Amino acid sequence: MMYRAVARHAAKLVSVLALVSVTTFLLLETIPGDRLASVLPEGATPEMRAAAEERFGLNGSLPERFFSWLGSALQGDLGRSMQSQVPVTDSILERLPVTLELATLSILLALLIAIPVGVYSGYRPGGLVDRIATFLCSITLSIPSFLLGVLLVFVFAVTLSALPVTGWTPLSEGLVPHIRSLVLPVVTLAAVETVGFIRLLRNDMVATLQQDFVLSARARGLSTPRILLVHALRPSAFSLLTVMGVSLGRLIGGTVIVETLFSLPGLGTLVITAITGRDFLLVQGIVLVVAVAYVLLNALVDLTYPLLDPRVRTS
Amino acid sequence: MRIRPRSTAVACIGAVVALLGSACGSGEASSLSPAGDPVRGGTLVYSYNTEAQSVDPATCAIGIGVGPCQAVYGALLDYDLETGEIEPGMAESFTTEDGKAWTLKLRPGLTFSDGTPFDAAAVAFNWGRILDPALLSPSASVAKTIDWEVVDPTTLSVTSKEVNYQLDFGLTEALAYIASPTAIEALGADFGNNPVGAGPFTLTSWARGTEMILDRNPTYWDQPRPYVDRLVLKTIPADDQRFNALQAGEVDVMAVTVQKYAARAEGAGMKVTSAPLLGGTGFRLSHRGPLADPDVRTAIAKLIDNEQIMNAVYPGEPVASGFTPEDSPLYDPGSAWPERDVQGAQKLLDDYRSRTGSGDIELTYVLTAGSPVLSQTAELIQSQLQQVDGLRVRIVPLEGAAFAAAMTSGDYDLIVSGLGGTHPDNLYKVFRTGGSSNNSGYSNPTVDEALDLTHTSNDPAVVESAYKTAINELVATNAYRFWRHARTDLISPANVHGVEVAYQYWFRPELVWIQQ
């Protein structure tokens, strides 16, 4: 049964990716204006234009260009950046780990806070913890991430000098400096995710705790922590898991503001550089990779549903 | 000591070219103890809001790429903003008697960091490479104005196709950077990411979008320079965030073009070095469509209210009352902007419309997207211009490269623009008929004649007078309008010495040392 589900997802995945590749390619083809304007110098000669068209693969018919691009992409060659001349694949692979780490840690931090708070708020709706959590969630939601980042920088970096203002220290330069460079961006990103997770889990917990099987568990004399964490959390985490997958995918493609604010060498800053520099080949490559990551993550989330709820497996 | 030999014919130009540099200045923090002699050591972190795309000398010699290029290659000649002198760099001298036949003398015994010789053949190779259309080099517009021939390992004979006594300026920018031919041939398209030069630093690592790390080149010719062991070029897009990093001690030299940080920095005991740039914060006018008519351009000039823009957008900063600041040697009362005169502007426009039978005039005002300051200014200008009947302004914000594309293709009526650089020879590129950066369609025989004279004369008084003539004519014909003189501030803590503005946002890192 599981194998069939995987095969079904794989077939869906292939068709989605085919659609993504065509759309990505055509999207950039339809952008108005001179695609070489950003790379041609002032006073460029016709020879320069011809050389640029050849270099960036813009001198064939549309189908020729698409199949040439797709053929190379399938071999991992997404061309070279029009601005920096760095292979697009290398640029993405260099940046992806930073964004992945940032996104994953943000989600983990959000879960670390959201699960206990959401579970307890759901267990005692309207109680002190629930009210405090609701209040803090409302405040956090009303602060945009760029403002939260600036506030955190002002307090923890400028005033207290406890953490760096900007920059990224790779793990190879030591665990502590690496973590120090991560704290503010991760907290900034995690804040909004935490709020969403808490609200979702709390509401699902409230609903789950009214189910018959919970009453039955109580009647059997099971302890409250066991009921909450073993019996109620798993079915309540269904929506949380879905949203978490979507959030992770969104963060991989969308940590633009936080990466820019903290000058982090991730996909977010790369995509900003590519868009503002009209580096079409780089934009094309990033969109493709982010789309693939998004689709794969959601497929993975789909495949984990049966682990949480056996009814999904049989259906 | 740095040596400053000059050819007799060219040296005199330096005095004239100090035109804008005269206003350079630095504010020293009063609490500083005497700095003493330079000492070696430490890491210097420089930060600006964007970074180079490549460190290939064929493409990095103009714009933001100058920073890493200068650090990795060293320039053949250096332009000193403060004195207006063009100084020896990797070359000992670049001399001429007639403005056409030039001789480039390199320092003997120079080697690239890969051990290969930095000789005249290497210079010829690099300049020839610039002319390859496939490299899309912005320096090609200068390289194609000259021919060259290797005379011996340290001598290159250069022939300018036109008389040009300011050709040496080209060797401070467009033709300044020479890379190892061996490395270029070995690395091909990847050379711009793995550059090999003979400058004060070598590239160690580059995390694109965030920071570039360069270490001292042990074979640099001008020992004990560079003084710092390591140079880090950090990209922090937001000015406030860059200033935060400076205050937190994470940045040693912050470059910024908004002047409000200078006062805050000096109040915090830091040093500020400033240099005026050519032109200012303003817009260039197209000379196509309705703007080809001088009356329409004059009407626009009469409608702009510099005071209002400055009070609203740059409170506290001085208002530009004309093209050149009053303390510049190029200052002339004739370069003052026309008086604001809404009724006069209305009359000029009405005359134009009745003369040509045209309806309302709609103009585009193109600016870079995402800048609150530029957006606010655009809205002010829109409201100022629309005070007359029959004139409409459409604000068109464009992302970075789209903006650059509009600029280079001339697809605008009014476009936010500086003039680039600090040297008045940039006027030649922007306003001379057929100039490499003349995208507005501007063509004026008086300006052409004056700018030609700046190239063909080696008399400082004549050159100065010619620049004044050109500028006055540019103002009279409303080719360009700005409200704020452009300026770069380099801000550094009190223990960082030797920071002086060079080129636009850059400095000479090999001269900087850190007081322990």
Automatic annotation (TrEMBL), chain A:
Major localization class: membrane
Protein location: Cell membrane
Topology of the protein relative to the lipid bilayer: Multi-pass membrane protein
PROSITE patterns associated with the record: ABC_TM1
UniProt keyword terms in alphabetical order: Cell membrane, Membrane, Transmembrane, Transmembrane helix, Transport
Domain ABC transmembrane type-1: 96-305
Transmembrane segments annotated in the record for this chain: 102-123, 135-162, 182-201, 227-246, 252-273, 280-301
One Pfam family here: BPD_transp_1
Family membership: Belongs to the binding-protein-dependent transport system permease family.
Protein name from the UniProt record: Peptide/nickel transport system permease protein
Protein species of origin: Rhodococcus rhodochrous J3
